[in-house]
């Protein structure tokens, strides 16, 4: 394998790592505030993908020029983000909120239950087979200086990069971001109402919104979606969140990029059937040497279990 | 002299303490009262009993030491694979069933120790992801190393236990194939032994060390209990018990089957069964598995075949097969149980007391 195709695989890895990172941020935000591994997050993303499939097939039944295409996709990403955010709030309010004071593993079972229900909703919505994402652009690749760049990958960057920048501004520059980061650094929220309760609602909305945005990118990147997509992407994204140090937002983004790179490179060198195994093998070996992940806190600090 | 005859309330009190005896007597007598167990239903019941064994193994890890373990099905699969490698006719080893079970349980436990020793110093969530990842790695290896594991087809045929042994002119191996009650009893005996083992372990010094490390790791360390060693023992025992369950499972099916059955989904389902039954509680685990897997393995196929029969006679019900709503039904059941009984259906007394304490 020559250098050019290696770089091309890296490019694919970084684009897919971008949206994996966004999904991983969803895991990490929820974990940071309520101390819960939100196993249903991948399936929320999958439903976002279903909605964006419906929107895109309604708006662009035939391929269009790049600018219109980008605008339509951003619109779809915003819609599916809003939908996933609201869905996440509903799940939290109806299912997880009553369990804030329960033994720590009980809400985990609820998240698995929610994941099953959402998967079944997806199965009824789009059926048991793969559904093709609509072709958005007239030209599928464009060559720049010897590299052929898939338009789909560019589109993913158009969605992911602004989302990450907005997230950075939101967390670093606003009052909401400051309170979120401080609460994630100290303890897990058990309150059901009041300021802390509002913070939890906002966290779930943000996590769902990023997941919905990422779902459009994932659909464009993979060109098909199915009802089990959330399950698989959820595993990758959870790995990314843990690799980066669960609870840390920059860690989740970096972890997502690393997981995307490992996946793309192992697909190219070993074949797609080894992809998930190599990602997890790297994770296990990495954690054996650095148990708290890349940006994670060591176990003596913080009140997290 | 007045003799106090045992009354019903005495019996209830006694059976609450020694619930194993009535439960296992009933299960052992069931084939007499319900001869259909010799057929397909017996096979389904056997798989529920086998998953009970694996769930008890998981309970040792999650219930007693409080560590989340998301890869129990991979140890289940490994146990089965080792048994298959040791016994199938295409491999040169071809050793008998019982020694093969011992060897494969030992190998599974060894793999558990190998995985556990570098990773058990991780914090809870990180360890959970490592076990999850290990499970996926094992599943992918099963799928891709076709010349060892048989790939998606699985490895088989595994000769039934007791093949070649003749008792009064009857080939025991053939009996195992023809009548599923043999495997039913084999799994029942194994389950009984495992229940007794876990019960003894829970009361032993080791079991109390597990709970001490779960509750107050610092205090446990000051009285000389090494948290890592204690956790490693629980991890190894969990792996061994799950490996035993895997051996029984592949022997009763006759092949290792599709490796995807040993993946994350199965692990999570067993974990859910343990938690809705009640963490750290042996009867709770059995009840949880019976509800969750009994619904999945026994109820859904029979309801669907019943619906198939009435379909066409009454109205078109193809959309309403229970199978297509299985996920949602299980999911709603999990949510509802956790909403109203967050400590599980039959919680262990210690766990319930701790929850009450933390609420006040």
The count of strands of chain B amounts to 2
Rg from Cα of chain B: 22 Å
Task: Indicate the proportion of strand residues of chain A.
Answer: under 5%
Of all protein chain pairs, which has the greatest interface, and how many residues does each chain bring to it? Answer: A-B, 48 and 49 residues
Shape of chain B: globular
Q: Which spans of chain A of ≥5 residues are poorly predicted at pLDDT below 50?
A: 300-305
CATH class group of chain B: Mainly Alpha
Helicity of chain A, in percent?
Answer: over 70%
Structural class by helix and strand composition of chain A:
mainly alpha
Layout of strands and helices, then pairs:
The complex is a heterodimer of chains A (about 300) and B (about 350).
Chain A: H1 3-34, H2 41-59, H3 66-96, H4 106-126, E1 131-132, E2 141-144, E3 147-150, H5 151-173, H6 175-186, H7 194-222, E4 224-225, H8 229-244, H9 249-270, H10 275-289
Antiparallel strand pairs in A: 1-4, 2-3
Helix pairs in contact in A: 1-5, 1-6, 1-7, 1-8, 1-9, 2-3, 2-4, 2-7, 2-8, 3-7, 5-6, 5-7, 8-9, 9-10
Chain B: H1 8-17, H2 20-33, H3 40-65, H4 72-87, H5 97-119, H6 124-144, H7 146-149, E1 166-167, E2 170-171, H8 172-178, H9 181-203, H10 205-215, H11 217-222, H12 227-253, H13 264-277, H14 282-310, H15 326-340, H16 349-359
Antiparallel strand pairs in B: 1-2
Helix pairs in contact in B: 2-9, 3-9, 3-12, 3-13, 3-14, 4-5, 4-6, 4-12, 5-12, 9-10, 10-12, 13-14
Please explain how this structure is put together:
The complex is a heterodimer of chains A (305) and B (360). With 305 residues, chain A is mainly alpha-helical. Chain A has a domain at 40-241. Chain A contains 10 helices and 4 strands, in the order ααααβββαααβααα. In chain A, the strands form 2 sheets. In chain A, strands 1-4 form a two-stranded antiparallel sheet. In chain A, strands 2-3 form a two-stranded antiparallel ribbon. The N and C termini of chain A lie far apart (46 Å). Residues 300-305 of chain A have low confidence and may be disordered. Chain B has one domain: ABC transporter involved in vitamin B12 uptake, BtuC, CATH 1.10.3470. Chain B is 71% helix and 1% strand. Chain B is built from 16 helices and 2 strands. Chain B has a two-stranded antiparallel ribbon. In chain B, a hairpin with a 2-residue loop joins β1 and β2 (170-171). Chain B is globular and about 60 Å long. The relative contact order of chain B is 0.15. The chains are: A mainly alpha (305), B mainly alpha (360). Chains A and B meet through α4, α8 and α10 of A and α6, α13, α15 and α16 of B.
């Amino acid at each position: 394998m020559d250098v050019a195709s290696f770089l091309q695989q890296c490019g694919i890895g970084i684009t897919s790592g971008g949206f994996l990172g966004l999904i991983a941020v969803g895991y990490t935000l929820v974990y940071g505030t309520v101390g819960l591994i939100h196993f249903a997050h991948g399936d929320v993303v999958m439903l976002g993908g279903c909605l964006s499939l419906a929107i895109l097939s309604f708006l662009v039944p035939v391929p269009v020029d790049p600018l219109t295409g980008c605008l339509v996709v951003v619109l779809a990403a915003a819609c599916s983000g809003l939908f996933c955010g609201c869905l996440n709030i509903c799940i939290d309010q109806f299912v997880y909120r009553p369990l804030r004071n329960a033994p720590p593993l009980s809400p985990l079972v609820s998240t698995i239950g929610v994941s099953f229900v959402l998967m079944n909703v997806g199965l009824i919505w789009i059926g048991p087979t793969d559904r093709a994402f609509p072709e958005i652009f007239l030209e599928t690749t464009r060559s720049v200086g010897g590299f052929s760049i898939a338009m789909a990958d560019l589109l993913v960057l158009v969605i992911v990069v602004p989302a990450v920048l907005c997230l950075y501004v939101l967390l670093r520059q606003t009052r909401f971001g400051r309170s979120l980061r401080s609460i994630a650094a100290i303890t897990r929220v058990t309150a059901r109402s009041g300021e802390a309760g509002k913070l939890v609602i906002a966290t779930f909305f943000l996590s769902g919104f990023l997941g919905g945005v990422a779902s459009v990118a994932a659909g464009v990147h993979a060109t098909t979606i199915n009802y089990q997509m959330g399950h698989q992407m959820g595993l990758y994204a959870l790995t990314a969140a843990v690799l980066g140090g669960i609870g840390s937002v920059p860690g989740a983004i970096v972890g997502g990029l690393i997981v995307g790179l490992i996946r793309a490179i192992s697909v190219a060198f070993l074949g797609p059937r080894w992809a998930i195994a190599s990602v997890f093998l790297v994770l296990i070996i990495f954690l054996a040497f650095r148990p708290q992940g890349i940006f994670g806190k060591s176990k003596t600090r913080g009140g997290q279990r | 002299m007045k003799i106090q005859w045992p009354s019903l309330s005495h019996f209830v009190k006694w059976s609450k303490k020694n619930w194993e005896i009535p439960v296992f007597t009933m299960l052992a007598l069931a084939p007499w009262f319900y001869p259909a167990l010799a057929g397909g239903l017996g096979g389904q019941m056997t798989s529920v009993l086998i998953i009970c064994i694996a769930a008890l193994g998981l309970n040792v890890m999650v219930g007693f030491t409080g560590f989340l373990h998301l890869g129990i099905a991979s140890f289940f699969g490994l146990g089965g694979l080792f048994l298959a490698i040791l016994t199938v006719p295409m491999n040169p080893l071809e050793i008998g069933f019982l020694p093969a079970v011992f060897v494969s349980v030992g190998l599974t436990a060894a793999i558990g120790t190998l995985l556990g020793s570098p990773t058990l110093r991780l914090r809870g969530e990180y360890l959970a992801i490592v076990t999850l990842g290990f499970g996926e790695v094992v599943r992918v290896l099963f799928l891709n190393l076709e010349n060892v594991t048989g790939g998606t087809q699985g490895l088989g045929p595994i000769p039934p236990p007791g093949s070649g042994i003749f008792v009064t002119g009857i080939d025991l191996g053939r009996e195992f194939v023809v009548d599923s009650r043999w495997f039913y009893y084999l799994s029942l005996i194994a389950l009984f032994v495992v229940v007794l083992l876990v019960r003894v372990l829970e009361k032993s010094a080791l079991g109390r060390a597990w709970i001490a490390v779960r509750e107050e790791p610092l205090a446990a360390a000051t009285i000389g209990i090494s948290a890592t060693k204690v956790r490693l023992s629980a991890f190894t025992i969990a792996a061994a018990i799950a490996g035993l369950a895997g051996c029984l499972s592949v022997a009763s099916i006759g092949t290792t089957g599709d490796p995807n059955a040993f993946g994350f989904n199965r692990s999570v389902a067993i974990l859910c069964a343990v938690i809705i039954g009640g963490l750290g509680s042996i009867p709770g685990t059995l009840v949880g598995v019976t509800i969750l897997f009994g619904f999945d393995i026994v109820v859904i196929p029979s309801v669907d075949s019943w619906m198939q029969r009435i379909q066409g006679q009454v109205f078109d019900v193809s959309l309403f097969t229970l199978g297509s709503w299985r996920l949602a039904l299980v999911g709603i059941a999990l949510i509802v149980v956790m909403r109203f009984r967050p400590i599980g259906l039959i919680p262990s007394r210690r766990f319930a007391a701790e929850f009450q304490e933390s609420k006040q």
